[in-house]
């Protein structure tokens, strides 16, 4: 299986007209009038950002989902993407073909779920871990991008979905001893692992985000880390209430089975949630809740924007807790 | 040296306003009216696309140059880029900082030479070879992109610059035995090696290309390979004259020191030239030569577009030569 075969057999069906049948050196995109382009590029390395040896659909979906999550946080809808894949040399011809077929299926799944196309990219072999990178193009109406730096004094801080499930799912996937001692039910373990394996980019909320939010980031590196980024970029302080960080029933149960505060801190700094962390004026709170309810998305108030700088986390007993680890530094 | 330090110390000075100070999840680009976007993404792997252990300015320049060459072939000027770097884990903190400083200097050199900015990207560590990827955005006036598929019957086929110098430069860099037996002068060896190390994207010719050319590709995988791509994409046949493939004096001398035809074939299939291979109606021949002369660029007629399909190479004695290797398949 050589580069041209991979392109012709597996990638060609995924290509939009912008990709010029993958026959050219570059893609051609004519931006519609009145649209700003949002661009994001994330790289995943085998054994760091996805599990070793997982060369198929799950990894392809993860690559697109984490990039889509960046677009969602900016209020943007995806338009297309460029893809680079470095396939490990240790894969023999037949395994490589199987992996490529499965990987392309994962790309197809996400493309059709979120309605965007492949524009181009390249393929190489690597004598090392599989390394994949996608550059996504998204569109927002001119001037409507939601920035990290837009938080305003008095804003409410919100989180979408549940925090920490993905982290516990990674512990399940890695058969981590901590979690084995806890002995989750098979339903809980399955639920967590799926949360880790299949992050859901919150693209269904982008219209509301553009309407109501002043600032947003997606939670890739943990709630604390992203909140600190928003606070710093906005030259303000964020106060978070640990007791308000939204957890699933399963994760709530896990927290209560140990030192609740310590475990909630761990889940809030772990990352890989790919939920939205956003700030909005309090006058929009009802509208935000209604809009989220309409699409079946949980949204939770977890803090507020105050004067000052940095991050303050209020613990379970109402006292500030020191944050020793803002997030996971890849 | 962690991700945030690399970004703040070395990348921040390279960022355009579109990069939002690298403080956001994504970049924001407002395309000017009347412009099409040209997008290209190329990945380089240590030991495959650049020499092992070369983590500094040369490699950074190579990464941008090979992507810029793709834009040049489409008649586009660069606007900005997203960059992903996967730094090898074996580099200790101090070497890593040195490499990062040097790498960023290479980026700065190319950015200022061709007038474009960094928009964003990401950084990871890898337990394997350094792997770097850039996505370049270029602009052309609406509808003016030069495609691979535009060749027309009767077009002249042209090549810019000299072919094969980069290949011989790679042989010098690798201390290849073939070349050692030939014993080039130190000037020749230096000239070849520089040609390999510092490909020059032919951006100075893009206006002429848009004016006169029907089809173009940049020569990354060898003259034969790229000519075949143009022929196939255009549903026509290309006939190339081996004796016309432009060589530097040094490379010409090397060819004459062995089997000239075999050596010319080798240089024409080797790749890494990053010259332009383009087709244009014969009525534009004078204008093309004048335009090239004005910017000090050598351009040479090397063939023609005929009826049929595929590629025909006419050898030194006027007879067709079988092409066994269209190019280097990475």
Automatic annotation (TrEMBL), chains A, B:
Where does this protein hold Mg(2+) 3? Answer: 25, 70, 218
Q: Which UniProt keywords apply?
A: ATP-binding, Kinase, Magnesium, Metal-binding, Nucleotide-binding, Thiamine biosynthesis, Transferase
What Pfam families does its record include?
Answer: AIRS, AIRS_C
Which positions in this protein are listed as binding Mg(2+) 5? 221
Question: What GO biological process, any one, is recorded here?
Answer: thiamine biosynthetic process
Q: In which pathway does it act?
A: Cofactor biosynthesis; thiamine diphosphate biosynthesis; thiamine diphosphate from thiamine phosphate: step 1/1
Check the record and name the Gene3D superfamilies matching this protein.
PurM-like C-terminal domain (3.90.650.10), PurM-like, N-terminal domain (3.30.1330.10)
Which residue range or ranges hold the PurM-like C-terminal domain? 213-311
Task: State the CDD domains in the record.
Answer: ThiL
Which stretches make up the PurM-like N-terminal domain? Answer: 24-139
Another remark in the UniProt entry says: Reaction mechanism of ThiL seems to utilize a direct, inline transfer of the gamma-phosphate of ATP to TMP rather than a phosphorylated enzyme intermediate.
PANTHER family the UniProt entry points to: THIAMINE-MONOPHOSPHATE KINASE
The protein depicted here goes by the name Thiamine-monophosphate kinase
Tell me what organism the protein belongs to. Litorimonas taeanensis
Q: What is the lineage of its organism?
A: Bacteria, Pseudomonadati, Pseudomonadota, Alphaproteobacteria, Maricaulales
Encoding gene, per UniProt annotation: thiL
């Amino acid at each position: 299986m050589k580069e041209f075969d991979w392109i012709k057999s597996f990638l060609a069906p995924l290509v939009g007209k912008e990709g010029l049948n993958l026959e050219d050196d570059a893609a051609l995109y004519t931006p519609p009038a009145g649209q700003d382009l949002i661009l994001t590029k994330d790289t995943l390395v085998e054994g760091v950002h996805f599990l070793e040896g997982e060369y198929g659909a799950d990894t392809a979906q993860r690559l697109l989902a984490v990039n889509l999550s960046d677009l969602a946080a900016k209020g943007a809808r995806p338009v297309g993407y460029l893809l680079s894949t470095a396939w490990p040399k240790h894969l023999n011809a037949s395994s490589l073909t199987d992996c490529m077929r499965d990987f392309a299926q994962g790309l197809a799944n996400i493309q059709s779920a979120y309605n965007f196309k492949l524009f181009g990219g390249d393929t190489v072999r690597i004598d090392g871990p599989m390394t994949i990178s996608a550059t996504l193009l998204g569109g927002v109406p001119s001037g409507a991008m939601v920035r990290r730096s837009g938080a305003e004094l008095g804003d409410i801080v919100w989180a979408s979905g549940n925090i920490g499930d993905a982290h516990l799912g990674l512990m399940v996937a890695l058969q981590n001893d901590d979690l084995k001692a806890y002995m989750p039910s098979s339903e809980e373990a399955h639920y967590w692992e799926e949360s880790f394996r299949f992050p859901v980019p919150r693209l269904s909320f982008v219209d509301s985000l553009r309407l109501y939010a002043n600032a947003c980031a997606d939670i890739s590196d943990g709630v604390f880390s992203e909140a600190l980024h928003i606070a710093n970029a906005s030259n303000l302080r964020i106060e978070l209430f640990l007791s308000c960080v939204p957890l699933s029933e399963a994760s709530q149960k896990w927290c209560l089975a140990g030192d609740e505060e310590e475990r909630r801190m761990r889940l809030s700094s772990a990352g890989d949630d790919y939920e939205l962390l956003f700030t909005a004026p309090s006058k929009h709170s009802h509208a935000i809740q209604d809009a989220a309810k309409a699409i079946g998305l949980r949204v939770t108030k977890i803090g507020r924007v105050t004067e000052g700088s940095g991050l303050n986390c209020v613990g379970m007993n109402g006292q500030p807790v020191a944050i020793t680890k803002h997030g996971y530094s890849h």
